[in-house]
Recover the amino acids of this structure.
């Protein structure tokens, strides 16, 4: 086994509050395309990315047009979201769930909206960019399970009377304050941060590792470990201590096995 994996396993086994941060790269081995990797959605279809940047404004100005778009176009609306509901977790997701079951990982903060961490058995998940399984009201903050709405009548309405949108955070949309606050307190409290499958270019999520790195005195020293197919700005800026370069589905299972052996 690679010495970097062995050292990361020692760090995890010795930790008192390890957390995991994930991005689309952990789901590619489940068949869900990422965004900026070589076959990513934005890489292969810049028009879809430009459309995605308009989505939040569309909802604010015309919720019916937003829903017609979300339920209609490929690579963005229900085709993309419907595809996410059909896929299964891969060994990377299962390894993260196992690290939680071992009592090592206390929280998983994900940018992914596919719900695969819960499907793999992870229980404490913060959905930093929301989830396709729910609808959310921007006015009162209420969230509702998607299946409670037929989506025949558009837009779906909140109990407060205002229109509902997918509980997915679109570009330009504020991160829900409950999730933002919980994520930041995890970043301030952790002593190991395992960052898996993210290009670390989208803020404010990408600021969480630097927040952990630069927190003041009186906090435990933090070990920041990346698992990613390629180096990221966190690697290049020295915010992460090491990069386990490769596929999360191949690195995380032996990492979890070795951490379990050391407990
Ligand atoms: N194993 C490890 N790394 C992988 C794998 C894999 N199997 N597959 C892809 N990767 C890497 C890619 O090389 C890339 O560095 O994962 C990273 C995925 O980066 P992005 O596609 O940018 O995804 P992410 O970081 O989650 O994007 C953040 O951008 O468009 C928004 O809301 C969207 O939440 C998303 C956010």
């Amino acid at each position: 086994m690679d010495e970097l994996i062995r050292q990361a396993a020692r760090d995890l086994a010795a930790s008192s509050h390890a957390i995991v941060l994930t991005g689309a790269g952990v789901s590619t081995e489940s068949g869900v395309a990422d965004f900026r990797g070589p076959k990513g959605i934005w890489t292969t279809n810049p028009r879809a990315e430009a459309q995605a940047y308009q989505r939040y404004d569309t909802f604010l100005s015309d919720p019916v047009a937003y829903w017609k778009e979300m339920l209609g176009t490929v690579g963005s609306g229900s085709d993309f979201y419907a595809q996410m509901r059909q896929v299964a977790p891969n060994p990377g997701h299962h390894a993260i769930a196992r690290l939680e079951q071992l009592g090592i990982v206390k929280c998983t903060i994900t940018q992914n909206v596919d719900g695969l961490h819960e499907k793999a058995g992870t229980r404490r998940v913060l959905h930093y960019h929301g989830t396709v399984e729910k609808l959310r009201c921007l006015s009162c903050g209420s969230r509702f399970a998607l299946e409670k709405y037929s989506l025949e009548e558009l837009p779906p309405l909140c109990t407060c009377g205002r229109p509902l949108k997918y509980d997915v955070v679109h570009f330009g949309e504020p991160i829900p304050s409950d999730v933002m606050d919980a994520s930041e307190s995890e970043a301030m409290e952790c002593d190991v941060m395992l960052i898996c499958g993210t290009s670390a270019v989208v803020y404010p999520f990408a600021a969480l590792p630097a927040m952990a790195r630069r927190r003041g005195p009186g906090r435990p020293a933090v070990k920041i470990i990346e698992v990613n197919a390629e180096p990221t700005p966190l690697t290049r800026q020295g915010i992460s201590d090491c990069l386990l370069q490769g596929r999360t589905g191949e690195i995380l299972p032996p990492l979890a096995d070795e951490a379990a052996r050391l407990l």
